[in-house]
Design goal:
This protein is mainly α and about 240 residues long. It has one domain. The protein is about 75% helix and about 0% strand. Helix 2 runs antiparallel to helix 3, helix 5 packs across helix 7 and helix 7 runs antiparallel to helix 11. The longest helix is centred in the last third of the chain and has 29 residues. The radius of gyration is 18 Å and the shape is globular. The protein starts with a helix and ends in a 6-residue tail after the last helix. The model has no long low-confidence stretch (mean pLDDT about 85).
């Protein structure tokens, strides 16, 4: 299948870049160490949130590099050839951006391994947990594609990628105590696809709101179908597919 070949080519190119390769690892490890220190000081090493938060943070940190990968392709001079092909331009763009979220899945086994090494509780890892992680990845990849598409409009994509990291995670309720996070999640789960999986992973006693997940996913998919081609056309008009 042409899309899979294109994705595999872009994935190998993505992990060959040392910045992209190490960012997921360093982001996951650094946030784990920070949370471990706080949990150790408060005798909270029996809380699985320590490693789950670290894994989600590492996944999304990797996703945000999709904006940088656009800048990387522009720097190499290959971005116009990726977008301007007879193959569907949305599929070409997805194949370019999907490696960022796919590589980000490494954050989960890495964070789990750190939890085992430092004797942090990991909770129950069952089929439901794995299924929720897959839903989280699908949500992150979908959001990633739409957000990163806007960065074809600027030659400074790498500079702005940090701006979409923490704000999204705060809106999903990944950080903060239960009293603040749960009311925020009740609202954001209907327009941010990542919220529902994050909520279930962190607060396992909560009901899985599939309706909210589907609703938010449909919103983002519809925006991708409508906006990506228009964004690419605008980028061609502005000449931002090439180095400026």
């Amino acid at each position: 299948m042409r899309f899979l070949r294109l994705f595999w080519f872009q994935f190998k190119l993505y992990i060959s870049n040392q910045y992209f390769f190490w960012l997921t690892i360093t982001s996951t490890v650094s946030i784990f160490v920070l949370q471990y220190t706080i949990a150790y000081a408060n005798h909270g090493l029996n809380d699985p949130m320590v490693w789950i938060r670290s894994a989600v943070f590492g996944l999304w940190a990797s996703c945000t590099t999709a904006a940088g990968s656009i800048g990387y392709q522009r720097f190499q001079g290959t971005l116009p050839y990726i977008i301007n092909t007879r193959y569907d331009e949305r599929a070409s763009l997805i194949a370019l951006l999907l490696p960022a979220s796919s590589y980000g899945l490494l954050a989960f086994p890495l964070s789990f391994l750190l939890a085992k090494i430092f004797s942090v509780a990991t909770g129950t890892i069952d089929l439901k947990f794995i299924g929720i992680v897959i839903l989280l990845w699908i949500a992150a990849a979908t959001m990633d594609i739409l957000i990163a598409a806007f960065f074809t409009l600027t030659p400074n994509a790498l500079v702005y990628e940090a701006l979409i990291n923490i704000p999204i995670l705060l809106l999903t309720g990944l950080f903060g105590n239960r009293v603040i996070s749960l009311p925020l999640m009740e609202v954001s789960q209907y327009f941010l696809p990542m919220t529902m999986p994050v909520r279930v992973l962190l607060y396992s006693g909560n009901m899985t709101n599939i309706l909210a997940y589907i609703c938010s996913m449909l919103i983002w998919i519809l925006l991708i179908l409508v906006m990506v081609r228009k964004i690419n056309d605008l980028a061609r008009e502005k000449g931002t597919l090439k180095i400026i």
